[in-house]
Design brief:
Elements: H1 7-34, E1 47-50, E2 53-59, H2 61-74, H3 81-90, H4 96-102, H5 119-126, E3 135-137, E4 140-144, E5 149-152, E6 159-161, H6 171-182, E7 200-202, E8 209-214, E9 217-222, H7 223-228, E10 238-239, H8 240-255, H9 261-273, H10 281-307, H11 313-361, H12 369-375, E11 376-381, E12 387-391, E13 415-417, E14 423-428, H13 434-443
Parallel strand pairs: 7-11, 12-14
Antiparallel strand pairs: 1-2, 3-6, 4-5, 8-9, 9-10, 11-12, 13-14
Helix pairs in contact: 9-11, 9-13, 10-11
The structure holds zinc ion.
């Protein structure tokens, strides 16, 4: 056996102890993560580390407002990812890294950072369950500390503890964002999203249909056919105008079977009289109230501790300064919010007009992205150009309407034909009634 220089064994022992230490540290961190305690150096965007307890997260009001805006624009505002990115950058909102640097946290980014939002940073916000109040850690694993290489960890191995801190967005909003994200949405040049983007699929292979304009017409055809060839799927080409007319007709065949127009009107009316019902505002307001209460409690406790001699006068003054600063920030946010609420309640008339127009015929005049997202789960195009249209509500209990000539097939309302002769098979894949779906549609602008 070859004799190794003395460093051999020592190096080995040194390596062993470094390894032991790293295992010890890792398992200590794992225990903390399992308990839902935050172990990162910097709190996730939208949160701060709680003063005095770096394992807990508290809401950073300023960044949390941005997070809520991103969710609102993307879900209720029906903006594409790119449009959200452009709006944030146009408004001069610093991206999470720049924001943290501005707050004095020395967050270094090995790739450099221009302070601008990107599609991936917005996507990260929209898909982070931390905003539901859950502590989610261990999504990535560092493979090499030197190269700053990170690897994605399978979801089953994440450390998820629910309800460890205050949520910034509601479960409904998060779920809606998740659904839209998973639909692999294509956007138009204007930044708008085509009404059926992510909803329209080839009935044969299940792939998305791609949009193509030529000779003055816009058509959709199977992506598998277009990208892989005719041996894998058929073209299934359908003209956009024919498709949109058919889908709109299918929607109107349902909406004109709604049950109780009066109650819909009454519900939307009473909801729009209360300005705080506008999306997000009630949450924001409650959150600010709670934050203000929290600051007051921190101050009270500091005062009590000071009075009992548990903290020094200097410490007390420092805490008081921080509290006062936070309180004035929070009050300013509250003032801004109530201004926003005032502006919004002025707008409810517009939505109200839309409802009045709808109630005249119980039909919609045009297929919009909002209409498609709220009512449709899936639209499949088959080889014979027939459609399967899946709704997100239950079958209306009222019989097919007889008032409109084109509200076709009285015998079997699940099999209809559009004015252009497109055969449509209707599937109901939801629990809520058509009246409830309409109420939700008109509630959110
Ligand atoms: Zn196909």
């Amino acid at each position: 056996m070859e004799k190794h220089p003395e460093t051999g064994t020592q190096g080995m022992a040194g390596w062993q102890s470094a390894f032991d230490a790293s295992v010890r540290i890792r398992s200590k961190f794992d225990i903390k993560r399992k308990r839902g305690e935050f172990i990162g150096a910097f709190a996730p965007y939208g949160y701060d580390k709680a003063p005095g307890n770096s394992d807990a997260l508290i809401v950073d009001v300023e960044a949390a407002a941005v997070v809520r805006d991103i969710f609102a624009w993307y879900t209720d505002g029906h903006m594409s990812l790119g449009a959200v990115v452009r709006k944030l950058n146009a408004l001069g909102v610093p991206n999470p890294t720049k924001y943290k640097n501005q707050k004095g946290l020395n967050l270094r980014n090995p790739h450099g950072n221009d302070g601008l939002w990107s599609a991936s940073s917005v996507r990260r916000v929209l898909s982070n369950e931390v905003y539901l109040g859950h502590m989610v850690q261990g999504r990535e694993k560092t493979v090499s500390y030197k190269a700053h290489k990170a690897m994605r960890v399978p979801r089953d191995d994440w450390f998820v503890v629910e309800g460890t801190h205050k949520a910034i967005v509601s479960g409904d909003t998060f779920e809606k964002a998740r659904q839209i994200l998973s639909r692999n949405v294509k956007t138009g040049a204007s930044g708008g999203v085509y009404p059926l983007a992510g909803i329209l699929k080839c009935g044969e292979c299940g792939k998305a249909m791609s949009r193509k304009s030529s000779k003055g017409y816009t058509c959709y055809c199977c992506r598998t056919y277009r990208e892989k060839g005719a041996q894998f799927c058929g073209p299934h080409t359908i003209r956009e105008d024919v498709l949109f007319r058919a889908v709109l007709e299918a929607i109107n065949l349902q909406t004109c079977r709604m049950e109780d127009a009066r109650s819909l009107l009454r519900r939307v009316q009473s909801a729009s009289e209360k300005p705080q019902v506008a999306p997000g505002f009630a949450d924001k307001q409650a959150l600010l109230e709670k934050e203000l209460e929290g600051e007051a409690a921190v101050f009270d406790k500091a005062y009590y501790d000071f009075a009992r001699g548990l903290i020094s006068e200097a410490q007390f003054i420092r805490i008081r300064e921080i509290c006062e600063k936070r309180q004035s920030e929070l009050s300013a946010s509250k003032e801004m919010l109530s201004q926003e609420v005032k502006n919004t309640s002025k707008n409810t008339g517009v939505q109200y007009a839309g409802l009045m127009m709808f109630l005249k015929n119980k039909r919609f005049p045009v297929l919009t992205r909002k209409l498609a997202l709220d009512f449709l789960g899936l639209v499949c195009v088959y080889a014979d150009k027939s459609l399967e249209i899946r709704f997100r509500f239950a079958a209306p209990s009222a019989p097919p309407c007889s008032k409109h000539g084109e509200c076709a097939n009285q015998d079997n309302p699940r099999l209809s034909e559009s004015r252009d002769g497109v055969k449509m098979k209707i599937v109901y894949a939801g629990e809520m009634s058509i009246d409830e779906a309409l109420y939700r549609y008109f509630l959110k602008v």
